[in-house]
Amino acid sequence: MSGHSKWKTIQHKKGAADAKRGKIFSKLSKELMVAARKGSDPSANPTLRTVIQKAKSANMPADNVNRAIKKGAGELEGVIFEEVAYEGFIGGVALIVQTLTDNKNRAASEIRHVFGRHGTDFAVSGSVMRQFVRKGQIIIEAATVEEDKLMEIVLNAGAEDMIRDGDQFEVVTDPASFADVSEALEKAGIKTISAEVSLIPLAQTKVTDKARAQSVLRFVADLEDNDDVQNVYTNMDIDDSILGELEKTE
């Protein structure tokens, strides 16, 4: 999974800009609403606990979190969202587009249009999804914590692995253990760059050409501009030689 955290850093930097426009909180609200349909008590709803931890990592205000949970649980009036995923390829890179939408027909039409603008189309269902695995992923700036201390905390809390990748630590968990590991880090006062249950590629596609990388990034940015899109996952591993240049443009 080495290299995936570098891609997540670029996404996180873009996410910081999105947050200024309210996009991140809007997307988190939808995730909270969907999760809360299975129950508004986080202790009895692991999915909701996971999304709450993700919202905390994004510094989402508690009032926003509670309001979204109440809407999802039916305590306040709210829209019903459905989760739909679309799969595809661009320049040899595999992508999964995760959506939460109140209109599946609209979402499919608009997202297909974005694919078409970039010269591609949806892949056969399952052809991309089987190349990814669902894992909890927590990224921490290495300069903020001692490696041995972090290793002890996350493994004791149930993490599967911890990887040093440049100036970051990438903590990988089973989805069921994600909330426990996140809470252990929070109690230890360790801040995270990002924390979420994500789709991680089983194998990565190395991209060493700047133009190709930019093409994929533009595609992802166009997809993320759609209000129905929650997440875009790729198996792109950006070469270190072009990573710095791309980070400056994000």
List the helices and strands and how they pair.
Elements (H helix, E strand, L loop, with lengths): L3 H17 L2 H14 L9 H12 L4 H12 L8 E9 L2 E9 L2 H14 L14 E10 L5 H11 L3 E5 L2 E6 L4 H10 L6 E8 L3 E3 L2 H15 L4 E6 L1 E3 L1 H10 L1
Parallel strand pairs: 7-9
Antiparallel strand pairs: 1-2, 2-8, 3-5, 3-6, 4-5
Describe what this molecule looks like in 3D.
The chain has 250 residues and is α+β, with helices and mostly antiparallel strands. The protein is built from 9 helices and 9 strands. The chain folds into 3 domains: 70 residues, Arc Repressor Mutant, subunit A (Orthogonal Bundle), CATH 1.10.10.200; 90 residues, Alpha-Beta Plaits (2-Layer Sandwich); 70 residues, Alpha-Beta Plaits (2-Layer Sandwich), CATH 3.30.70.980. 46% of the residues lie in helices and 24% in strands. The strands form 3 sheets. The protein has a 4-stranded antiparallel β-sheet, sandwiched between helices. The chain has a 3-stranded antiparallel β-sheet with strand order 1-2-8. Strands 7-9 form a two-stranded parallel sheet. Strand 1 and strand 2 form a beta hairpin. Helix 3 packs across helix 7. The chain starts with a helix and ends with a helix.
